[in-house]
Structure formats: structure tokens, C-alpha cells
Amino acid sequence: MSKPARVFDDAATRRICKKRDAQRLPPNLVDYAATCASFRWEDAAKQLDGLPGGGGLNIAHEAVDRHLAVGRGGRTAIRWIGKAGGRSELTYADLAAATNRFANALQGLGVQPGERVFALMGRLPELYIAVLGALKARCVVSPLFSAFGPEPVATRAEMGDARVLVTTPELYARKVQPLRERLPGLKHVIVAGGPASREDGVHGWSDLVDAASPDYVIAPTDAESMALLHFTSGTTGKPKGAVHVHGAVLAHMVTARYALDLHEEDIFWCTADPGWVTGTSYGIVAPLTLGATNVVVEAEFDAQAWYSVLERERVTVWYTAPTAIRMMMKLGADAVKGYDLSTLRFMASVGEPLNPEGVLWGLEAFGKPFHDNWWQTETGGIMIANYAAMDIKPGSMGKPLPGITATIVERLEGGGARVIDEPGVDGELALKTPWPSMMRGYLHEDERYRKCFAGDWYLTGDLARRDADGYFWFVGRADDVIKSAGHLIGPFEVESALMEHRAVAEAGVIGIPDETVGEVVKAFVALKPGFEPSEALNRELLGHARKRLGAAVAPKQIDFRTNLPKTRSGKIMRRLLKARELGLPEGDLSTLESDEKK
Ligand code: ATP
Ligand code: MG
Predict the structure, then answer these.
(1) Which of 116, 470, 477, 503 is the most exposed place for a label (fewest CB within 10 A)?
(2) Ligand 1, from 280, 377, 397: best to mutate by most atoms within 8 Å of Cβ?
(3) Pocket of ligand 1 (CB under 6 A)
(4) pLDDT, tens digit, for every residue of 65-98?
(5) Residue 479 CA: which ligand 1 atom is closest?
(6) Pick from 291, 284, 290: which is nearest to 319 by CA?
């Protein structure tokens, strides 16, 4: 595989990126090598509380109730910022009582442990209460993204065998009622914030939940019992339903501590919606297990509004995504300068590769870099990360978490995989099994699940390489890699090179069939404000890419777009760019965000 020189991977850049922040709190992970050498999940498990009397492990107990017993009930657990200017706070004691009421309400309806509770609502306090309350009742929770239309909602609720749905009257009328006949197993709908319809089985939150008792004792819970059902983003095809268990909470807690440097005294903001795994693992569970304050913002992305939240709420740790970072970059670093963000200590990013430009822009705009980390719905928690106390190599995903072994493998024909982990060699990223938050299955897709494993390894479907210092570099998804004249080209490399150009806001790169070389590289580019598509700019970008990447890897064609197609979780859908370019079927579009939306 071709390996264009990486200008960012040098000592000088690393020095620039060394934390300039005088650490107000010592990092949780100081000595990476020593921690990895001594780390054992069994030891880390001692940081969990466990249900009283040896009753097993329940995520909601670890996230909420345990804090009350040690006098932290008065601390703010959730600080909610509504989109219409509303604002409310729930202390850990409030959250314990509210989630107890919800668990009692489910019990009162006769809902059994293991039955599926779906949530379809915006980021309202009731969503957080429902998720944790249902976990207390030992139900399986599946939060859906509230912007889904009726079809994606029905498909997932059908596939996941939804017994209860928690939603709002408006979402129920628009998104559930039209296809309700497809869901005969859906026995109860709980609607929050408004009058319930008079339909059978539809209950108003205030009649049912607020009226329930605030006392509830979580029944013994097996750490291996199913707790969460998360659908993948659908970037590469039809979304899969990944099954997670209560025991995953250990990884949520440990990884937040190490990879997000989260401390009990932090004010944490994860911008992801709980409809995606990040918004649940780190937008609900992880910060609460550590006793931190979790900021929940109902509104969608708006750069100025986000800077205001960071300033006003005195956010200390911020976890966001490359799409948002690229949108902020579009507006320039000066837009950040008027805000007092002096409390902000650590910034992290996940979901897509973070272009080196994004890391460096963090330094320019916020005076600190974004720390990229890598994981998937299937892994349940962060697996590879850039840590607070470690040098960043911009463009690298960082190093595996303590307790996680990552390697590079080659899939063998006829099954199995061979480890090919030499510095600089590209192959499929694989993780050694097991770890606590590893998925326990793909719902109704056993064969597909089995194909993710070879011997001791979980095969991620992503291509990567490791360098001599042990940092991992994302190359591309196995499905997106381009084969051209004997080279394997990762789209990320090409996109990152284009992003270095001052006119480029966003780039998506695909391969298109070519008789001579197999595939040629084609790029789709969205421009920053102030730049217009033109022949001259097209030539300039082609020339820039050729200079940076060499003729074999650089795109041969560039098309300008106002916006690139993305999933609702913000990932560029290269498969859709490709299908449209080649006139092929577009496949599952249930997670596509409207292309016109910025
Ligand atoms: P689907 O599996 O349905 O196609 P998806 O893979 O996008 O969707 P998620 O589980 O939400 O669904 O996303 C995980 C994937 O996102 C990873 O496998 C990887 O391709 C990409 N990803 C996440 N974080 C990073 C990162 N820091 N760098 C590079 N890629 C990342
Ligand atoms: Mg995936």
C-alpha cells in the first residue's frame, strides 16, 4: 500500500501539541506504559459498587444510586439546557427518585425484566430518567434518534420487539401512529410533556410516572444480562442492532476516566444524542458513574450557541465530533475569541476520523487540541485514544486503552485472520476479546456476528496502521478503501490533504471504476464561506492534492457540493456519494440526514 509522507507525524508538531494547559487537575492517566502493564479489569471492577447484598451489577445503580449512599446526593447530576431558554437541574437524589418512579411505573404496567423499552424523544430530562429507570427495572433500553421518520422508527421497534415506547405526544402522532399496526407487540406508550391521546395503552407521563412511588429497590441483576440495544449508524449499509450488557458499565467508567480524563468535579458535556451509542455510553452513563455533572443541551448544533454553553456552564470536559469541529472551523477561530472558556480543560472527538487540521485548529481557537478517540457501537466504549498526559500526533487515533489490546490483521480466505502488526503496515484493526463492553450479539444476525471474530480477535471492519511509537492511524473503512493501479488508498488520507487547503470545509473521497487502473480517486468538496466553485479552484485543488499525496494517490476529479450526505450522527456517507455517482441503488437511507441541511 502507498504511504504518502505524513507531514504531521514529526517531533516538531508533537511539541506544538504538547499540552499547554497548566493542568488544574492532575490527569487520571499519567504513565501510559506503567498503567497498561499493571491494569487488570478484575482490579478495575473494584471501583464499582455492585448491588447491595451481592445482588450483581446494574448500570443504573452505578450511575445513580451509589452516590446517595456516600453523601453525594446533593450534587448536580444533570443540568438541562432547553432549546426555548428553559433550564433545570436534577441532583443525584432527584435523579434517584425520578428513576425509581419510572421503574415503579413500568412494574405497575406489568412490564417484565428483559422486555424492551424504546425511547423516541429529543434530549429532554424525561429521556434520561426513562433510560435509567428502565435499566433499574432490568428492561432492555433502546434510545432512538428523535429525527427519525416513521419508517426507521417502525423498523427498529419491530426488529427490537418494542414492548414500551417513551415519547412525546407530537412525535407519537407524527412518527409512531402512522405505522402503529406494524407493532402489535407494543403494549404501552408513555408520552411526556402534554396530554396523552385517548388510545388504549397510551399513558401520560404525569399520570403514570409522577404518580408512582419514589422508592424502588433494584432486584438482583446479572452483569451478563442484556441492558442496551444500540443500532449502528448505517454508514456502510443497513444498521445492525448491537446488544450490550449491564457489565459494560465497567468499561464506560474506566474509559471515561482515562480517555476523557473525567473527574468527579468535572462539568462534562457530550454533544452526541443518546440515539447513538456515544450519547448513551458517554452522554448518560459514564459521567454519572463518576459523579460528575452532565450537561444536556436540547438544541441542535449552532456554533455561537455552543460557545455560549461552554462559557456559561463552565464546562471543563467537552466531547464532540469531527463534523461539528469542521463546521466550527468554517466560521473561523476568531468566532471563539470573545468567549471566556478558561474552565475548559480537555476536548475530545469521536465518530469519524479527525483530520490533523481539526486538531491544530483546536489549538488555534481554544488554545488546546482536540483529542481524537476511536470506537464503535460494537465496542460499547472508547478503545483507542489520545490521553491528556500523552503527546498527540495530529491525525492519529492514539493508543489502546489500558486493558485493551489492539493489533493489525489480515483476513484469510476461507476464514480466520493473521496478525501482521509491524510498524507502518496497513491492515484491519482488530481487538483482543473479551472486554466488558464488547457487544454480545447482533440482534437476529448470528451469522454476521460470528463473522466479526477470528480466534481471539474481534475484527472491526476498519483499516488502520500502527507506527513505531505504538500510535494507531485510521486508513479507512474496509468498504471505502480504493484500489488504484496496485495501490490501496484510504479516503481519510486524501480528505485530510484536501482539508489543508484554505478553501475546503469538508471532503468526501470515493473510488470510481476505471478500465486501466481499476479505480480512480474522485473527491467531493464543500467550500468554506467566501469561496465559490470555479475551474481555477478545481485546478488549484487538484494541484495541491498531487503535491501533497503524489500522482498515484491524488484525486483525478473533484466535484463541488454545497454539502456532503451524512448520517444523522454526522458521518460522511461515502457509499451514497458512490452510489449516486455510479447510478447504483442507494441502499438503506434510514439514517441519512437531509443533504440540504448544513
Ligand atoms: P455502520 O456500522 O452501520 O456502517 P458506523 O460504523 O458508522 O455504521 P458506528 O458504530 O456509529 O456506526 O461508528 C463506528 C465507526 O465510526 C468506526 O468503525 C469507524 O469507521 C468510525 N470512527 C469512529 N471514531 C473514529 C475515529 N476517531 N477515527 C476514525 N474513524 C472513526
Ligand atoms: Mg460500523
Answers:
(1) 470
(2) 377
(3) 232-237, 239-240, 276, 350-354, 372-374, 376-377, 397, 460, 462, 474, 477, 569, 571
(4) 999 999 999 999 999 999 999 999 999 999 999 9
(5) 4
(6) 284
